[in-house]
Every structure is written in structure tokens, then in C-alpha cells.
Amino acid sequence: MIWLGVTGVRNEFANNIKEFVVLAKKYAKVPVYVGFGIYASWQAKNISQFADGVIIGSAIVKIIAEHKENSAKEVKKYIKLMKESI
Q1: Nearest Cα to Cα of residue 63 among 48, 76, 53
Q2: C-alpha 60: how far from chain center
């Protein structure tokens, strides 16, 4: 397993993330997903060009923390945007 950092929202990824994913897909017998720091639809779109999918966690936690008991609508809207981007 290759670790490129910790989870959480970020603006940049390692320059060689695509190289790592392509290498992992060459040997993996399972889909290869990227999920460290993805929060924006443009990131999901870019990563999904070479990964089998994206994992979004910290951004959803942030939305829930921000909107508390009213977060369901905002999370749904965010997930819809992310799905449409890939």
C-alpha cells in the first residue's frame, strides 16, 4: 500500500499520484480508489480519469459539522455534485 499523506481537505496532490495509481492498478486484483483530500468536483473529475473512483470523507464531515442537524440536504447536494463531476 502506498501512503501519500494524511486524510483531509487539500488543494494539491503529489505530482506522481497518477503514476502510483497506474502502478497499483497494474498489480491490484481490486478497484483502486483515491481518497486523500478530495473535496472539490474538479479534483474528483481529474482523479477519476485514472483511478477507479474517489473516496470523500473529510469534506462530508466538514459539511455535517457546519450544518449540524440540517446537514442531510447539504450532504445530498454535495454528493450529487461530486457524482455528476465524474
Answers
A1: 76
A2: 11
* 11: in domain: no
How many domains is the chain built from? 1
Task: Write out pLDDT tens, residues 21-75.
Answer: 999 999 999 999 998 788 999 999 999 999 999 999 989 999 999 999 999 999 9
Do the domain assignments include residue 2?
A: no
Cα→Cα distances 32→3, 20, 52, 71, 73, Å: 13, 10, 5, 29, 29
Domain, as residue range, for 37: 17-85
C-alpha cell at 66: 457546519
11: exposed, middle or buried (Cβ count in 10 Å: 0-12, 13-18, 19+): exposed
